[in-house]
Amino acid sequence: MTSIQVRATFGPALLHIGGHDTDIATRENPVLRTRRRRLQAEVRHAGFEAAGTVRAFGVLAILAPVITDEENDVAYPGDPMALYSALSYPMARATASFTDPFGPADVYNDLCPLWPRLPGKKERPDVSRRQETEVRTTDDTVFDPRTWTPRTRADLVSLLRRRGPSVVLISAVSPAHRYALEIAALVKAECPNSLVVMGGRHADETVRRQQPAEVYLAPSSTATGARRPGPGPVDVVVSGDGAPLLDLTLRAVARSMDLATRATTAEQVATELERMATEGGQEYGRGSILVRGTTGWTAFRVEGPPVPAEQEPAPYAPFLIRSRFPIFTRDDGTTSRCAHVLVSGTCPMRCTFCSESALLGQVRRAVAGDAERMVERLREYVEYGAEAAFFDDSIFWSGSWPRIREFCNALAEARQIDRGLSVLQWGAQLTVDVLTGPKSEIVRAGLTRMREAGCTYVYLGIESMSEQVMRHVHKNVRRGTPWKERVRLALGLLREAGIRVGSSVLFGLDGEDENSIAETIEEVGRLIDDGYLMLASPNILTYHPGTEITRRHGMDDHLDYGSQGVEVPPPYSFFEEAYPGVVSRLLTEDNIWRIHRETRVRWGHVRNGVEAVAM
Fold first, then answer.
1. Beta strands in 200-282 (DSSP E)
2. Which of 126, 217, 224, 357 is in the most buried spot, having the most CB atoms within 10 Å?
3. Is the peptide bond before 571 cis (omega within 30 degrees of 0)?
4. Which one, of 294, 302, 187, 184, lies nearest residue 243 by Cα?
5. End-to-end CA separation in angstroms for the chain
6. Hey, how many other C-beta atoms are within 10 angstroms of the C-beta on 100?
7. What are the distances in angstroms from CA 504 to CA 65, 285, 392, 540?
8. What mean pLDDT is predicted for residues 246-251?
9. Model-level pTM?
10. Does position 22 have pLDDT exceeding 60, yes or no?
């Protein structure tokens, strides 16, 4: 790992600069006072309605895609929730700044991102392609290509030329990082003065805050990989609690930006962040902001509390609900609009292969009123046009049956008086251990309550049907009964409750060989034959930075998420995250071809589930 120096730390009570404690002195910068007075005069001259034009700088957010071939049947099904969650908080604060320029609700008091208005009721039903010319609402400030092809590349170039954004925000998971870097290079080629900010799960996986004065970078991090001659395409990397840290970054950007050109540099942003740290004040969230200068990267640490629940806007408040998860359908057979929901964040399990594991992050603790708040969130999403919801947490309510029952009781009660909620279908993710570990009467009662509250689908991580593989997997915690029997027991309980089941199968875990591959393909096929599964998704183990299996297989220093070409050849292109150089060392390319071909034949229309819905 590489370490970089922490330049300043934002904290709730004590400020550290350059590793030394400093008294907090709240004071206003004279330069900023002069800037604000100039902007206030321009607003008064132009009129209140023109305040947005006077103060605004353009922002474009981009979700980096994971695949290159739109012909394939593999794609992430959900809306870009990590990006939506990160954007919704700073968007809410920016729109308040436009509503009350330079007033008590204006956290910018300077220039402000061009996020002037949330979508209204008239726009909510319109989920057609986002506008590429006019920024009417916050929804129009996102570019989400889903695939990276010559056509989408040309679309982005055209959009950049029309919009000329001052700031471009790119969100990427690790398998999308290679595309994110190409996107950043395109931004710099078309808009050289744009500031490029990178965030998302890849940044979270590759930045570690282990010492007060240092931040450690994985070899595959954006900052490590960008240590090449020249300015590089990425100026800032945000890691950790994306929403409050992005808000802090954008306020520093606004304060450092030239009033005439609406341009700034990474070094100017770093200077402003350090100045903001000396002013004190409360900052929320935990994480790191890395800023690139002429001599390398410096880090700013944030050690604040979580954003208070009452201040957290709904991730869909600034965006239209576009996702159509094919497992949820209307009476006429067409696919319902589906909202994706997060409750717990980090998974409480400690699976060695998972980037959402508690080994890499903090599990959100239960807070009184969580169940009622989530019911209100679902009610809000129904008003936005959601006909279904899927809980994207790795384990629904962290696998706690008391919390599951509490939520389902609150939702079932609300469904009796709210017509929109009464017809809402929803699904969630559980594990075999959650379903077979507690007493069967507890599980049966919980599943029955889930079904009564509208749950029609559960996604289950089977991973493998081979005992020699599953003995290494933390999902197989309560051993004694063979894994195959426990899988069947879990699926039987779900079927008994009237809940459909989809499953994930992961090849390449410790213990995998030719025999275990054949065993898993056949045993999953038998589950399909017996009517337990409506969907079976084969996946290839991909090494994520920071996971235990990546270290165990000696891949930490060998992951390349940046310098490879962006094309993904078969057979890797048939799987969600697989491409050469980052897949399991236990699998050869012949193995991957075999998994692709044999699962298609043995699992038939249930593989990936698209055809299963139609049938």
1. 207-211, 214-217, 236-240
2. 217
3. yes
4. 302
5. 50
6. 11
7. 21, 32, 14, 10
8. 96
9. 0.90
10. no
